[in-house]
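INFO  loader      accepted 1 record
INFO  loader      residues=200
INFO  predictor   begin
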Amino acid sequence: MYGDLPKPKSRLHVSLNAPTTLIFTALCVCATILGQVTGGTATRMFFSTYSAPLYDPFMYVRLFTHTIGHGGWDHLVSNMTYILLLGPLLEEKYGSQTLALVILLTAGITGVLNNLLFPNVVLCGASGVCFAFILLSSITSLREGEIPLTFILVAVLFLGEQVVNGIVAKDNISQFTHIIGGLVGAGLGFALGGRKVPED
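INFO  predictor   done
INFO  writer      dumping tokens
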């Protein structure tokens, strides 16, 4: 009698589909709030990287935490748009641990190079991570002896623009960080070979 009745539809629920992306976004939001509340003091002390004495323990911390600090809400929203758009796709393809490694490598490399090459420049923000994600996402699959045309186009458009801006623009955006972030993403993309994370 009741066998022909339609089954009730399951209710929609929110899924934590990309833990690394979501945690990184949450850290960025919290760091920005803390920076705003302290008038920028927390951002400079903990969430920016710049040349400092080697005996300063926070110098080593800031090499990685500068990617979660942002100068304001516009800066944050601009970067998080790319992070939230590309992060889940990359995390599904490569796995949460690999994406966390991409973020850490990008942060460390851009932090060290900024401090060595531009000791007077204070660097903060996730734009380097954004460009790493952009270049990494352009390499969806690789075959031996082939370079995806999409990768070439993305590299020319995004990195080429940063090179030009670095020459002619006079703003406070670190094109160098964008370029390095993009190169890290490209390098990891080729190293990973477009491989999909093994399923459990």
